[in-house]
Amino acid sequence: MQTSRLCKIGIGAPLSGRGAPLGREMMQAAGIAVVEANETSNAAGIRLEAWVLDDAVDPEEGRTIAHRFADDDAVLAIIGHYNSNVTLATAPIYLERSLPLVAPIVSNPKLTESGWTNVFRFTNRDDVTAAAITRYLRDERQKASAIVVETQTVYGSSMSAQFVTAWKAVGGTVINHHQVSEGCEDFVALVNGFSGDADLVFYGGTFEGAPLLKEMRTQRYMQLFAAGDGCWDVGNFLVPAGRSATEGEGVIVLSACPEIGKVAGSSDFAMRYERQFGPITNYAVNSFDATMTVVEAICAAARRGALVRAGVLECLRGINRTGIAYPTPVRWDSRGDNMAAVTALHIVRGGHFHQVASI
């Protein structure tokens, strides 16, 4: 009997530290994809394995595990990393070793603007999502002036800068632009200094969004709270924000994929995920779909007799696959951005995110 060839998919994600819940969900969703793919991949004569390593949201640790992936010839592609700073640090290593990299969640424009020919972004970019939310705020909510609060991280700085650029492009004004440190929880003085003339507060960052919003409502600052997809997160924003998310003008939070049920197949996957790990809280659908896209490229390379990294990369470049994250087929533009990606906008209702627009 012919033995199936082992093909590994490296998965780099934060499994320790503050980002661990997000990394675990990414890992678990990708793992489901590999398990399910193995039920059909034998037709291509291969056996798939997910090899997961913890990058701890640390660029140096990311580089260390990137070399470990790259040194194993059985690793044919990478899913990762969760965070922009780690992914930007590791992409050159993967390029040097001809390893295809598919980033399910990373939104920093530099990922596909740096000339790395092995990189593919599954989600939308910060400049694209910023343009979507600013048009909505101006056209649908008739907002004109904003206070911007930015957490000083790679993601927070990128999302905030892109919002400011897009906001000014549609005629909006920025009254103040504040920077806060990652991990900050005391926003009393900051909110006390907010101008009453602003129509909204835009927050670019992740973990500081909930305490900022709660302080706004405590001080009866009831203007709209708008945020990037760092706050499209049940565990780190929705739950700790509590009723603050529905007080005053509420919130509008963007995401780089539609909510569960808007795309065929996403509800079925969510049920499979929940049976094993509990409810989806973040980008599990993107992680599953990105991994299945890599699986299809590996199987295509096997059928062509080109089951090496360069062969997988060639098949990945030509992918045209209908998944469950987006309504149209996954295809890459010349930079490696996914032309199927969309931006969704959500309010909070009844303790849940509720999609109000898809752009």
TrEMBL record:
Keyword entries, A-Z: Signal
Transmembrane segments: none
Residues annotated as domain Leucine-binding protein: 8-333
Listed CDD domains: PBP1_ABC_LIVBP-like (cd06342)
InterPro entries the UniProt entry points to: Leu-bd, Peripla_BP_I
Family annotation (PANTHER family): AMINO ACID BINDING PROTEIN, LEU/ILE/VAL-BINDING ABC TRANSPORTER SUBUNIT
Protein family according to the UniProt entry: Belongs to the leucine-binding protein family.
Name of the protein in question: Branched-chain amino acid transport system substrate-binding protein
Native organism: Bradyrhizobium algeriense
